[in-house]
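Residues pack. Consider this:
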Amino acid sequence: MTVTFLGTGTSVGVPMIGCDCAVCQSNDPRDKRLRTSILLQEEDRCIVFDVGPDFRQQMIAAKVKKLDAVVFTHAHKDHTAGLDDIRPFYFYTRTGMPLYLEEKVRNTLTEQYQYMFVKDKTYTGITPELEFKLIDLEPFTAAGFDLTPIRLMHGPLPVLGFRIGDFCYLTDTNHIPESEYAKLKGVKWLVLDAAVRKTHPSHFSIDEALQEIDRIAPEHTYLIHMSHKIGKHEETEQELPENVHLSYDGLRIVCQ
């Protein structure tokens, strides 16, 4: 299974509009971060986690011509604002796109994208057929991938992380409930939120993430959802333990 990091930045991306800090002005391409999303591919199967405002750009950069399903972690705009850009996949296939999501996420999408779900004569474009697949904390299968949902807290908001085999994706969180650690046992590849250097009300800091990594004990960890406050990639990477890395846009790892 190949994991492609489509975006590794926080909700405003890096560089941030109007910012003159050293990270935002960096020429290192690893310091250019689109909104967070990852792509899973195995054989001819392909799913994406979240469709943020950079989704179109990310699909083009990754040369994705076929997408089998979308899995949502939560309903924040930096994870859902690219929903309309699913349309080209429908142009090619004329088949519905399965969306795996919690009920509260479905409700948000149907409210924010009414033209996709309600007959509106004022909209003359082609809307995709979106197939809602409601999920909870029970394991499910999407495009042949077996996923185990993991409850996370994103500040006061319950969100989802996911485990697929020995790979685990935990973004947008600053708390893992005690009940969920059993699902993380034996994880080899961990992707974990680390948005800032200091405390944040809804994201792990680097130090907090490192504490979680010590407890989960994966073989490899990649930090994600990073703001410009994380520091330059090259400098911050040197401060981390040997088996912990900053992810970056376009990074690919093969989970074996």
Q: What stands out?
A: The first helix runs from residue 55 to 61. The chain is about 20% helix and 30% strand.
